[in-house]
Amino acid sequence: MQNVSIVGVGQTPVREHWDKSLRELAVEALLAALRDAHKDQLDAIYVGNMLSGELTGQEHLGALIADQLGMSGVEALKLEAACGAGGAAVRMGYLAVASGQFDTVAVVGVEKMTDVSNAVVTAGLAMAADGEYEAANGISFVALNALLMRRYMYEYDLVEEDFAPFAINAHANALNNPYAMFHRSVTREQLKHVKMVSDPISLFDSSPICDGAAALVLSRKENLNGNGPRAVHIAASAVATDAVALHDRMDPLWLKAVELSSQKAYAQARVQPADIDVFELHDAFSIVTPMSLEAAGFAARGTGVYMGRDGEIALNGRVPISTMGGLKARGHPIGATGVYQVVEAATQLRGEAGPNQVPNAHVAMAQSLGGVGTTAITHILKKD
Amino acid sequence: MQNVSIVGVGQTPVREHWDKSLRELAVEALLAALRDAHKDQLDAIYVGNMLSGELTGQEHLGALIADQLGMSGVEALKLEAACGAGGAAVRMGYLAVASGQFDTVAVVGVEKMTDVSNAVVTAGLAMAADGEYEAANGISFVALNALLMRRYMYEYDLVEEDFAPFAINAHANALNNPYAMFHRSVTREQLKHVKMVSDPISLFDSSPICDGAAALVLSRKENLNGNGPRAVHIAASAVATDAVALHDRMDPLWLKAVELSSQKAYAQARVQPADIDVFELHDAFSIVTPMSLEAAGFAARGTGVYMGRDGEIALNGRVPISTMGGLKARGHPIGATGVYQVVEAATQLRGEAGPNQVPNAHVAMAQSLGGVGTTAITHILKKD
């Protein structure tokens, strides 16, 4: 296999972009990544997106975005793995370069969610779950996560407030990220008055509906030209899956796909959890954070929330997470999120994270999830 | 790059499968391919599908189908490129094995179209076109092809009847394919009474709305075990794109993506058009057939229809096409079609095509298109 490096990153701010279409957002991120990489040619473009068909009446994003970029002609395809679609596109870009067939490809994740009503978005997001055995019974995606959070609280004797450090950390980090959706800190005091979304999941526990796009340029490590000093190596790329329906899992409180995907990635990169300096995890709902920390090997079963309480997730903590705001505060434009995570992890390894820079960051992990931890897509990055 | 072989093929009949769900169809095809390959383990599953979200309220097909197959845990992702989604999944499976990361993966294309009204399907198919500049103005996908056919007839001084040999050939070949949707021959006489769909496109010129799934097992050539004698080598895998909107093309009568993708594939496989013994092309509408034959290098500009008139597309002709019925008569379950094409091309090279066997078939080409020739995905297969 060829070694694969990230030689350019780009992103749009995460916002309610009522003045920009899906293709415009995607191209804005791609052009930024191409400028960053000092490239003007690509062998292929891989697009991560979940809901463009349902929300904007447009499939076929590969060709559409290549066309809008002015690169009509190149290979262009779309990947989907529910909320992990962005990670899936990174995976495809990695394989295309690793195979040796291509020198330089781009990956872009994009989602446009705010042009339709929240009810339409909610129906769309339920398509990440099992349509015939979960969604058909009327349960929404947030409600599935609420069931999981309730059970987790019951089994491990926790209360809602125990999850607060995750939102507080994410919002604090987003303050310094100009691309983040939210630029306001939140406090434990506010938790007492927060609106409930799906009991016990409150607004504090939920990532927002939003628009955005993020992009990467990937190239063979042997082919870096002037990009060497800022290039970041992709040391691992691994995907695993679990049963889609929560009721089909032997143990709903253990994210098996996260464990499998993390373990495969650690083996490929020859690292241990203790070697990970930055962990961009998929904090779509705050319940996902401790469960991801546990299944990925950073905390014992049922103890993930204590990493929040004890400050271990802070920028100077043992396992910094959501360093640019995470899904909670940077925002979660579904199919774009997995690419934002890799952009941010690479930015940390380049030492370009500004006030949010994690000291001595050499190894970073980005993990994109589809469904309730159903698909887990893990990339480990290293700065040589 | 590792050499990639097809070691197993599987397919469901193309029908209106009202008694089977999308996941059941996919698993039926996958199990058939696994049996054919004598395999019971996979490293990954790549799914081709266009419209499951819009038509059945289900995204996240990768994990869903892996789960239904009893292989929850493995890598599983979905690819989409409009009507070329099946070809896109083959492309991803090829890269995953060619990269050297995986030994054995499966590809499955699946579409379930007949559980909803034709109006819903028509709206879904329009998402292959440019949503903001074509579909938003009310034009359907068949109408776009009708505009193209009308212009082609005008430029090259043709009438509807000149296209009849394509449907007659496809239906004749489908008679001997138990998996084909239609088992009735059609005649030139019937053309006089055929219903118009979108003038000048009649029922004779249109592929049907239907359900189906097809699957492949791909493996490293060095790793064939007992499958050697029946294995088929993937000698080329190439994708190209064109402008999505017809009005954005300098020359709407020339399928640039077909030309680019074919030329890339010929170079990879080190063959010329004259070396191709079987060409499974994307005859979604009969206008696509001559335009594909021209852009892929089998006929001069504006002369593709004469290949039909002169019998060159027959099983014993110069360039046999639609050898098992093609999209017209085997059927066109959108995201499955690109995989059906590769299954049929491999079947020809194995010499297992029964009464439809093309004599001395050593090199076969399968070409999956998304949109009006917007995305072209070409695979060339060889039997060593």
Output the structural class of chain A: alpha/beta
Q: Element order, helices and strands of chain A?
A: EHEHHEHEHHHEEEEHEHHHHEE
* Quaternary structure of the protein: homodimer
Mean pLDDT of chain A: 96
Outline the biggest β-sheet of chain A: 9 strands, mixed
The most extensive interface between chains reads: A-B, 65 and 65 residues
Give an overview in words:
Two copies of one chain form a homodimer. The first copy, chain A, has 384 residues and is of the alpha/beta class. The first copy, chain A, has twelve helices and eleven strands. In chain A, the strands form two sheets. In chain A, strands 3-2-4-7-1-8-11-10-9 form a nine-stranded mixed beta sheet, sandwiched between helices. In chain A, strands 5-6 form a two-stranded antiparallel ribbon. In chain A, 64% of the residues are buried. Chains A and B meet through α2, α3, β3, α4 and β8 of A and α2, α3, β3, α4 and β8 of B.
Give the SSE map:
Two copies of one chain form a homodimer.
Chain A: E1 4-11, H1 22-37, E2 44-48, H2 52-56, H3 61-68, E3 75-80, H4 85-98, E4 104-111, H5 118-125, H6 141-156, H7 164-174, E5 196-198, E6 201-202, E7 212-220, E8 232-241, H8 256-269, E9 278-280, H9 288-295, H10 304-309, H11 326-329, H12 334-350, E10 363-370, E11 375-382
Parallel strand pairs in A: 2-3, 2-4, 9-10
Antiparallel strand pairs in A: 1-7, 1-8, 4-7, 5-6, 8-11, 10-11
Helix pairs in contact in A: 1-3, 4-12
